[in-house]
């Protein structure tokens, strides 16, 4: 099947020549033409690589990654939201995500998105996106600041620790509202010292930021089935 995994495209399309740029240079430069082209393409995903997050079995898949059987009951949603609140120190600690700035269809990616993308290139210039391996196990190896949302149903995951790389790409589903999920990641990002920027691009809400050479990008959308789909990419 085809899925627009924009999050996975961010590191994959980087040019090795960007690897020797400083963070300030990366944030200020425009996205190169090859990257802009790839950001508008689709990736063919391998359905054999999709898997459920069995550690959070309150949400169970059907074996069909396109239409999982997710518990969307109020009780399931509240349980997930309550656990998310616990992970940030309580509901009062959750920080609402700022209003999104809309990017026009022909607009270049924002500075934060460019910086986050280029941060996926290791200092030596190697393209970490070319080294990823696909297995649901990578969902359990995300940085502590950016775990899969509580009780989320992992659809596919990839990552690599080869060489200087520390790249994670995870897609998951949750019945929790998109704004609640983005608030969770925004709060985790700020608490961990990351910057945060919220834009709307190509129909997706995009939350992204950096801290030194580390970066995260969260692509979120609400699906017609009444669930939220998140593409999460991190470098550390």
Number of helices, counting only DSSP H or I runs of 4 residues or more: 6
Unreliable stretches (pLDDT < 50, length at least 5) are: 1-65
Q: Mean of the pLDDT scores?
A: 73
The strand count comes to: 10
Q: Give the class from helix and strand content and strand pairing.
A: alpha+beta
Shape: globular
The helix/strand order is EHHHEHEHEEEHEEEE
Radius of gyration: 17 Å
| Biggest sheet layout | 8 strands, mixed
Helix content: 10-25%
Across the major sheet, the strand order is 3-7-8-9-10-6-5-4
- The fraction of residues assigned to DSSP E strands is 15-25%
- Cα(first) to Cα(last) distance is 30 Å
In short:
By secondary structure, the chain is α+β, with helices and mostly antiparallel strands. It is built from 6 helices and 10 strands. The longest helix has 14 residues, at 74-87.
Describe this structure in words.
This protein is α+β, with helices and mostly antiparallel strands and 236 residues long. 24% of the residues lie in helices and 23% in strands. It is built from six helices and ten strands; from the N terminus they run E-H-H-H-E-H-E-H-E-E-E-H-E-E-E-E. It has helices at 6-12, 23-28, 33-39, 74-87, 111-118, 178-191; strands at 2-3, 43-44, 101-102, 133-134, 153-160, 167-174, 197-201, 204-211, 214-222, 228-235. Strand 5 (153-160) and strand 6 form a beta hairpin. It is globular and about 50 Å long. Residues 1-65 have low confidence and may be disordered.
């Amino acid at each position: 099947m085809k899925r627009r995994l924009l999050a996975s495209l961010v590191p994959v399309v980087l040019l090795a020549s960007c690897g020797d740029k400083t963070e300030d240079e990366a944030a200020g430069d425009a996205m190169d033409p090859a990257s802009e082209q790839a950001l508008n393409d689709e990736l063919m995903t391998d359905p054999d690589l999709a898997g459920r997050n069995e550690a959070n079995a309150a949400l169970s898949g059907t074996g069909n990654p396109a239409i999982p059987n997710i518990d969307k009951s109020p009780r399931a949603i509240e349980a997930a939201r309550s656990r998310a609140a616990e992970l940030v120190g309580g509901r009062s600690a959750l920080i609402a995500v700022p209003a999104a700035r809309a990017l026009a269809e022909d607009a270049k990616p924002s500075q934060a998105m460019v910086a986050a993308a280029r941060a996926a290139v290791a200092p030596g210039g190697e393209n970490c996106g070319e080294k990823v391996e696909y297995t649901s196990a990578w969902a359990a190896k995300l940085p502590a600041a950016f775990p899969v949302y509580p009780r989320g149903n992992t659809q596919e995951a990839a990552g690599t620790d080869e060489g200087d790389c520390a790249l994670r790409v995870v897609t998951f589903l949750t019945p929790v509202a998109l704004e609640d999920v983005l608030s969770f990641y925004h709060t985790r990002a700020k608490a961990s010292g990351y910057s945060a920027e919220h834009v709307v691009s190509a129909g997706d809400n995009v939350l992204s930021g950096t801290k030194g050479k580390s970066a995260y990008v969260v692509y979120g959308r609400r699906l017609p089935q009444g669930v939220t789909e998140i593409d999460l990419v991190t470098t550390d």
